Amino acid sequence: MTAIDPARVVAVVGAGTMGQGIAQVALVAGHPVRLYDAVPGRAEEAAASLAGRLDRLVGKGRLDKATREAALAGLHTAEELTELADAALVIEAVVERLSVKRELFAALEDVVADDCLLATNTSSLSVTAVAGELRRPGRLVGLHFFNPAPLLPLVEVVSGFATDEEAAERAYGTALAWGKTPVRCADTPGFVVNRVARPFYAEAFRVYEERAAEPATIDAVLRECGGFRMGPFELTDLIGQDVNEAVTRSVRESFFQDPKFTPSLAQRRLVESGRLGRKTGRGWFPYGEGAAAPEPHTAEPCDAPDAVGLHAGLGAAAVLREMIEEAGIKVIRDRTPYVSGGFIGLPGGTGLSLTDGTTATGDPSGAYIRFDLSLDYRACTRVALAPGADADPADVRAAIGLFQRLGKQVSVIGDIPGMIVGRTVAMLIDFALDAVSRGVASAEDTDTAMKLGVNYPGGPGEWCDLLGARWAADFLATLDGAYPGGRYAPSQALVRRADLEAKQGRS
């Protein structure tokens, strides 16, 4: 693909954090860069800040002095838009308001040459709408960098309704030449990452609103059991509660208030109270000098049982049988078919089973304790348990001791459908498959976007291959029964994939 010649000028409009980051990427890639901001003096301040960043990179050995000198020599500020006339690419990183962006690009059309590529770094606005009033909308494309732009590799290359294919290919090739990992996507609300990622936040907030666990515990379970880099509460505190909620509300409105994108009332109250996260000193958690680190609920040590029963298979948790035996606990196998699925029999008669979207209390076949999904039971360091109301307290302690013997910390949470990791992963799979089926991005690009854009431990498509579309479809159908209204109704894309799996399995 054709990239813009490194000798050509790249202009960045908007000298805030994101604009500076994008300018740094272009400079290090060898382009002369012109930095413009509508606020007098801000571009000069940003240039000085950029020079300081490059100096620090040299000091840390992450940038050689020659590259630094070349970058600084190529960095210039502009006082007027007319000074961007010779740019081959203009990237805007201004305030997220459609009217502001439209006005800016209309002015740029009167300044730059016909072959100049125009790009918006918007994260939530429609690229089609941004280009809607241009004389030549085909040359405008979305180039959505992730913050911090110099460090995060992902760039979403977004084609609006009128974007020319040649413009999208040139933008893709340029991002690739800059050392980034670009993914192509259509102009739909949230693009790939902000669309598919909504359940990661929404499900955690719902678990909290149902008082099944507090934020520190939910975060710990998603990190240490699910394998996610950060929990949603600490992550939204880092992003800013106002920013994260605004994206959620924007995506929901763009999808005509689809219940799958319902925002969190608890997060709304947080924003209304001014507790926006790290930037205000308090969000879900307190910050600043003397603030205590969030502590998840972790069960006290309990004795492991000497022996447990194994009734049928354990599905995605099948490896637990080997792990239990390796830990020196006797496993007594029951070969009698069990219609409700596999479980581990505890000494007092309570069953210990993998979450399937139902509650433990509602299981008609007896007393149960559910344990949460992990994508890697050997590597995970924490497991969540949800005892049913009729579970034997001694068996609850035995279940805790069992997982502690396997080297896991244990968090006991309330008995809610789907627990924490299970419902989150099932929803992420569904959102990803739905996006792919609607042409938002390819399956490969969707997985790449989620792994690089938000540091997921795997792509939702990979999880679907691992767990099975039938598992996800059945899990969500069960949740849809527990929470009617459409939020958990499995998408047609997931249902079709599950049906195809079934047919292939029978052939």
Q: Specify Rg, calculated over alpha carbons.
A: 26 Å
Shape: elongated
CATH architecture of the domain at 9-187, please? 3-Layer(aba) Sandwich
Question: What structural category arises from helix and sheet content?
Answer: alpha/beta
Q: Quaternary arrangement of the chains shown? A: single chain
Strand order of the largest sheet: 3-2-1-4-5-6-7-8
Which sheet architecture does the biggest sheet show? 8 strands, mixed
Q: Give the end-to-end Cα distance, rounded to a whole number of Å.
A: 42 Å
Q: Round the mean pLDDT to the nearest integer and report it.
A: 95
Number of strands: 15
CATH topology-level fold name of the domain at 9-187: Rossmann fold
The fourth-level CATH homologous superfamily of the domain at 9-187 is: NAD(P)-binding Rossmann-like Domain
Task: Write down the CATH class of the domain at 9-187.
Answer: Alpha Beta
Number of helices: 19
Residue share in helix: 40-55%
Low-confidence parts lasting 5 or more residues at pLDDT below 50?
none
β-strand percent reads 5-15%
Provide the fold topology:
Layout: E1 9-13, H1 17-28, E2 33-36, H2 42-59, H3 65-74, E3 75-78, E4 87-92, H4 98-109, E5 117-120, H5 127-131, E6 140-145, E7 154-159, H6 165-177, E8 181-186, H7 193-196, H8 198-209, H9 215-224, H10 232-239, H11 241-254, H12 265-272, E9 307-311, H13 319-326, E10 330-334, E11 343-345, E12 351-354, E13 368-371, E14 382-387, H14 393-405, E15 409-412, H15 421-437, H16 443-453, H17 460-467, H18 469-482, H19 492-506
Parallel strand pairs: 1-2, 1-4, 2-3, 4-5, 5-6, 7-8, 9-10, 12-13, 14-15
Antiparallel strand pairs: 6-7, 9-11, 11-12, 13-14
